[in-house]
Design brief:
Order of helices and strands: HHHEEHHHHH
CATH topology of the largest domain: Methane Monooxygenase Hydroxylase, Chain G, domain 1
Number of helices: 8
CATH architecture of the largest domain: Up-down Bundle
CATH class of the largest domain: Mainly Alpha
Structural class: mainly alpha
Strand order of the largest sheet: 1-2
CATH superfamily of the largest domain: Peptidase M41
Strand content: under 5%
Number of strands: 2
Radius of gyration: 26 Å
Distance between the termini: 53 Å
Largest sheet: 2 strands, antiparallel
């Protein structure tokens, strides 16, 4: 997915909800907020602004590019002070549209987490018990097919295979570390 050239609006809205999930979870499970969601909020804001300003994904503002990244006020690719190509009123409309997208994504994240609270609680309990969960574990928990005995059996088999595996070979000592252990420098050798 890294080399994709285009994204569908629905995909971007889903991504916004995912990015707002950390903050939503803090509010639901801790009844508080931390600075931990800062990166996600910044990324969501940037994505929402791109939807409005670059990709024309807003009915009210239309399919107009409000992107300033191609400003003519650049010196060797470094942006300095740039003049907007749109009015203060349009800037306020853009900010309002971005906020509306983020508020909607936040509400959606809260709803999704609330609807799946029991599954999230189970995920947390299993992380405490097992320390790690793999992709299949998470999928089974979310689908409601999780079987703790199956997980314990898989871990037991993996542990037995680990015990049967031959030990790794000892590390190879380099010439310089060998000389160092003998009290010599590479130049003296």
């Amino acid at each position: 997915k890294k080399n994709r050239l285009s994204y569908w609006k629905k995909e971007i809205l889903d991504q916004l909800a995912i990015l707002m999930g950390g903050r939503a979870a803090e509010e639901l499970f801790l009844s508080d907020m931390s600075s931990g969601a800062q990166q996600d909020i910044a990324q969501a804001t940037k994505l929402a602004r791109a939807m409005i300003c670059e990709w024309g994904m807003n009915d009210k503002l239309g399919t107009v590019s409000y992107d300033e990244s191609n400003s003519s006020n650049q010196y060797f690719g470094v942006r300095g002070y740039s003049e907007r190509s749109y009015s203060e009123e349009t800037a306020k409309e853009i900010d309002s549209a971005v906020k509306e997208l983020l508020d909607t994504a936040h509400k959606r994240a809260i709803q999704i987490i609330s609807d799946n609270k029991e599954k999230v609680d189970l995920l947390a309990a299993m992380l405490i018990e097992f320390e790690t969960l793999d992709k299949d574990d998470v999928k089974e928990i979310m689908e409601g097919t999780w079987d703790i005995n199956k997980k314990k059996k898989r871990l037991k088999i993996a542990d037995e295979l680990q015990k049967k595996a031959p030990p790794p070979p000892p590390p190879v000592e380099s010439k310089s570390s060998k000389l160092k252990n003998e009290g010599q420098t590479p130049q003296e050798a």
